[in-house]
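Reading group handout, session on sequence-to-structure problems. Before we discuss, look at one worked example. The prompt was deliberately terse, the way you'd type it at a terminal:

> structure Fe-S cluster assembly protein SufB

The input record follows.
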Amino acid sequence: MTEEKVEKNQEKFNHITEAEISYDSGKGLTEETVRNISEEKDEPDWMLKKRLKAFHHFKKRPMPDWGPDLSDLDFSDITHYKTAEGEQADEWDEVPEEIEETFDKLGIPDAEREALSGVGAQYESEVVYQNMKEEWEEKGVIFCDMDEAVQEHEELVKEYFMKKCVPPQDNKFAALHGAVWSGGSFVYVPEGVEVEIPVQAYFRMNSKGMGQFEHTLIIAEENSTIHYIEGCSAPQYTRNNLHAGCVEVFVKENAHVQYSTVQNWSKNTYNLNTKRAKVESEGVMEWVSGSMGSKVTMLYPSSHLNGEGARANHITIGYAGDGQNIDTGAKVVHNAPNTKSTIESKSITQGDGRTNYRGLVRVPEGSHGSKVSIECDALMFSDEATSDTEPYIEVKEDDVEMAHEATVGRIGDEEIHYMQSRGIDEEEAKEMIVRGFIEPIAKELPLEYAVELNRLIQLEMEGSLG
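And the output record:
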């Protein structure tokens, strides 16, 4: 990639918008902040009570001390809710010009035209654009932002929201999320409907010291199919930003959900997400995650296989450069017989970056015939880089197939010299090795997103190999 192209690609992520702001909660978090957010959204009383209960749990719960260092994260310095002027639109030319320009630079309208069934675009705390092609709406598919879902599909939200999958008591950041969540996506796929083209949501933080807490709730009824793609980015600041989203997925009998993420938060962002799926009999859940940016990431997508024959595939790639700590992994609980899970984790580390695979697989007594395969590969480019693997496997059933493999390695001089002898320069040789390393993940994404994943890694590594 030429220097000019690198600068253009960096600019599209670091672009800062000067949009008019209609509401700003200010820095810090109090009970009044929570009440004000709920009032701004004109929420029903049950949601306010749910928020306040989560807030009090957040205040009581200590910071986790088992993972990356979070001591520099100051909640009193974070703005938890901020909205731009204007109403949500379903036409791009109705979005405020300066915000539309940001999403244009990120290529979202082009992607919608070329490869998607629907798009949601969130700016700061609220969704500014939401649209889905009519053919899917006519089949009963719902794709809207969570705030609209609370108003228009209240009974469904009341039944599923932070109740059966990720309760606010799950962890400190789930509790924070439950108190101040805003925006995100609600997806409902009726029985027997196969949404053949992916839908996408893109989350953009623009302001210094901003926190973003979007909620994604997906319900795939029996024999349905959906592929949901999530993208996210923020410009670089010297002050910390915080992202604490939450994803809940319900995969009913024989349904199939793929959830793909290409994350490129700026390197002043703490990315502390909770993602979980409940999978019924013969259902399939696929998590495909690329974690490229952020200062610290703690992300462990989880699948609970609750019906016989349920399956989960977890494919993750983490990249950490100077100053980054990417702590990712997977959790799978085999709660029924003849369930199957595969976990494939890959990490690339350079400079003084740190990556870690942290996984949990649990097979309780009675889940006979279950199969588990775990593979972790790490690629390091420097002596200062660190990469660890911390798998925890608990099996209480005899009739189980279990396979676990982990490799850690550096790019060897012999590989580079071999490729140089074929006329390939050193930098291109290393990029080719990395592209081959991430290929199992890239091939699971639609072509446009696989290209974007490759481009992001190329961007991160440009000029820093050696």
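Points for discussion. First: The chain has a mean pLDDT of 88. Second: Residues 3-463 form one domain.
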